[in-house]
Write a structure and sequence with these properties.
Blueprint lengths: L5 E5 L6 H5 L2 E6 L10 H10 L4 E2 L10 H9 L3 E2 L4 H7 L2 H10 L7 E2 L6 H11 L3 E5 L8 E4 L5 H16 L4 E5 L5 E9 L5 E13 L2 E7 L6 H17 L4 E9 L5 E7 L6 H8 L3 H9 L16 E8 L1 E2 L5 E2 L2 E2 L2 E3 L6 E5 L6 E2 L6 E9 L2 H14 L1 E3 L5 H9 L1 H4 L7 H4 L12 H15 L8 E6 L6 E8 L2 E6 L2 E7 L5 E5 L4 E8 L3 E6 L4 E10 L17 E3 L4 E6 L6 E2 L4 E7 L2 E6 L4 E6 L6 E2 L4 E7 L1
Parallel strand pairs: 1-2, 3-4
Antiparallel strand pairs: 5-8, 6-7, 6-8, 9-10, 9-12, 10-11, 11-14, 12-13, 14-21, 15-16, 17-20, 18-22, 19-21, 23-24, 23-30, 24-25, 25-26, 26-27, 27-28, 28-29, 29-30, 31-38, 32-34, 32-37, 33-36, 34-35, 36-38
Length: 624
């Protein structure tokens, strides 16, 4: 469109892809979001310094902050989004529910009262009954949301949700909502111009979620009939008209098994999952956002919206599904994303990128389009098989297992799908002898060691209880690795981390990378990530701390780099196994550190506000 783009970035994002791809980039502060991306003054100063005409708020941070939208316009700039008044009406989930009720759209029962004391929330939670959701009034993406099934846990859940909401959106306001059992999460994309014209671009099904955050989205929904689609679209447009909504937005609903629907919220911004709508309608939503913000009338009428085919998006996250979706951070050693007919990849990473613990752990979006749902699923499956990211734990294997589930393929997903289906993967520390030997042999090549007459010993934690004997005999052009189960010759195929492991019966190619903690392999087809933590390499000290190290000895450690937001114990206190000792915030989420067994606290090594590294011992306890 011939528009010059200016990026803002924090210290954590100095080397990020968007910083290099834009026409100009301005540094606006240190890594903590409150001192950079949530600081409206710094963003406006950057706009003035670069002589910008408009600000696009993106997906998160200040994108639904009415004060920011008003400040942008007061500064003489164009805010690419709804007006501050419309945002106040729907961007705040409490106001949005009131607007929906006024428009005659059914809403989920809950509490949105003016009394926001802890006592009032507790009283109303008891009235509503469990299960009940505590939800942030601002923002989205599952941040500041807690599900409470036992009222004894309500107080802690309320406090945690308020803290997380304040950190993510700068607003700690929350409300309560009755938790619906096994609904579908259906949302409707809308567009509106300043002349009072509104259209919808049909629905997206976002029912596959973890921690109330979407991971797979598709359109059209397998559960939405033509009649229900019309009803949902009509309800969404009634809400838009009621608040004079302008620009792109999403109206979200819960739909139960009977087809009854309830208004949930309005996301007063562009959605992460917007590509599936673009692929099925042919409408470039960002182009439309820019056109509407520039004052042009909508170029599309409702009759022009003629969806074709099917599109599905999978979000790739730096997280470990086998460890409760714990976010992962580190340097990306290798990034291989899919391509091909019907495949679109929206990515913010490349080989060499660093994933920090400061922001959301989403790495990329993988979107597949097909003439039918089956064709789109087939393409998505093939695309996920092509993807590999080394250096951090990812959910790629987990996504493969989700879309392979018969219930998902049949279109039967609900918001509790992950809780009601077995999706466990293989152990993260495999015991396949060939993989162990491949890891040991590749380690020698990557570290550049020379052959020696004496064997050396390697031990990888979690992979084997016995050390692997590695002989430094140069045979057939490679290192020979041997343990009691057999031997394998490891040969480097190229200087680009590619290897071959061969024994008497077979040969397998793989890729390997040296990590701070040990070594990582990508082996098999589709490539499976196997990470090995190095415990012993003759007398060489362990290169890094394993995230879970020390728990058996009474040390409660940080699972990743983050900021301590709460210490829930004191020296001398008696604690029970699994009792929360401390809470850290990392990647815009809170993580509870719990006691490994019943005992007494003998040391507390952290205070709220401390920045801690992965493996840092926060609390020490001794058996009672």
């Amino acid at each position: 469109m011939g528009i010059r783009t200016i990026a803002v970035y924090s210290a954590a994002d100095a080397g990020a892809l968007h910083v290099r791809e834009c026409d100009e980039a301005l540094h606006i502060g240190p890594a903590p979001a409150r001192e950079s991306y949530l600081d409206a003054g710094k963003i406006l100063a950057a706009a003035r310094a670069s002589e910008a005409d408009a600000i696009h708020p993106g997906y998160g941070f200040l994108s639904e902050n009415a004060d920011f939208a008003r400040a942008v316009r007061d500064a003489g700039l164009t805010f690419i989004g709804p007006s501050a008044a419309a945002m106040e009406a729907v961007g705040d989930k409490i106001s949005a529910k009131r607007a929906a009720e006024a428009a005659g759209v059914p809403t989920v029962p809950g509490y949105m009262g003016a009394d926001r004391s802890a006592q009032a929330y507790a009283r109303e939670a008891a009235r509503i009954g469990t299960p009940v959701l505590v939800k942030a009034a601002a923002g989205g993406g599952g941040k500041g949301m807690r599900l409470v099934r036992d009222l004894a846990e309500f107080s802690d859940a309320l406090e945690s949700a308020q803290r997380e909401a304040r950190s993510a959106f700068g607003d700690a306001t929350v409300f309560l909502e009755k938790y619906l059992s096994s609904p579908r999460h259906i949302e409707v994309q809308i567009l509106g111009d300043r002349f009072g014209t509104y259209i919808h671009l049909n629905e997206r099904d976002c029912s596959i979620q973890r921690r109330h955050q979407k991971i797979i989205e598709e359109t059209p929904s397998p559960a939405v009939s033509a009649g229900l689609r019309e009803q949902l679209g009509d309800a969404a447009l009634r809400i838009a008209a009621a608040v004079s909504y302008e620009n792109a937005g999403t109206v979200e609903f819960m739909v139960d098994a009977s087809g009854a629907f309830y208004f949930l919220e309005v996301n007063a911004r562009l959605q992460v999952e917007h590509p599936v709508t673009e692929l099925t309608t042919g409408v470039d939503l960002v182009r439309e956002q820019l056109s509407i913000a520039a004052g042009a009338p909508l170029r599309i009428a409702q009759a022009d919206v003629a969806p074709r085919g099917h599109a599905i998006e999978a979000r790739l996250y730096a997280e470990d599904p086998e460890a409760g979706f714990l976010p992962s951070s580190g340097r990306l050693l290798d990034v291989r994303l899919a391509s091909g007919p019907g495949i679109r990849v929206d990515s913010g990473i490349e080989t060499g990128s660093t994933v920090t613990s400061d922001y959301d752990p989403m790495l990329a979006k993988l979107i597949a389009f097909g003439r039918t749902r089956d064709e789109a699923l087939g393409r998505l499956q093939a695309a996920l098989d092509e993807c590999h990211i080394a250096g951090v734990a990812t959910n790629i294997g987990f996504l493969r297992r989700v879309i392979a589930q018969p219930d998902f393929r049949a279109g039967n997903a609900t918001t509790d799908f992950l809780e009601t289906h077995s999706l466990d993967g293989a152990a993260s520390q495999p015991s396949d002898p060939l993989e162990l030997l491949a890891a040991a042999g590749a380690l020698q090549e990557l570290d550049g060691w020379r052959s020696t007459a004496q064997p050396r010993f390697v031990n990888f934690s979690g992979a084997t209880q016995k050390p692997i004997e590695v002989s430094y005999d140069w045979r057939a052009g490679g290192w020979q690795a041997r343990d009691e189960r057999g031997a394998s010759t490891i040969r480097a195929l190229s200087p680009n981390a590619e290897f071959e492991a061969s024994d008497h019966d077979s040969a397998r190619t793989f890729r390997a990378w040296r990590t701070p903690d040990g070594i990582e392999l990508a082996i098999g087809s589709p490539p499976r990530r196997s990470a090995f933590v190095l415990d012993r390499l003759e007398d060489v000290a362990h290169a890094g701390l394993h995230a879970a190290a020390g728990l058996g000895s009474g040390q409660a450690t940080a699972p990743m780099t983050g900021t301590v937001v709460k210490v829930a114990c004191a020296i001398g206190a008696s604690v029970k196994a699994h009792q929360v000792l401390a809470v850290i915030e990392a990647m815009k989420m809170e993580h509870a550190i719990t006691a490994p067994f019943d005992g007494r606290v003998v040391a507390v090594n952290a205070r709220p506000g401390d920045r801690v590294d992965a493996g840092s011992v926060l609390v020490e306890i001794e058996p009672s």
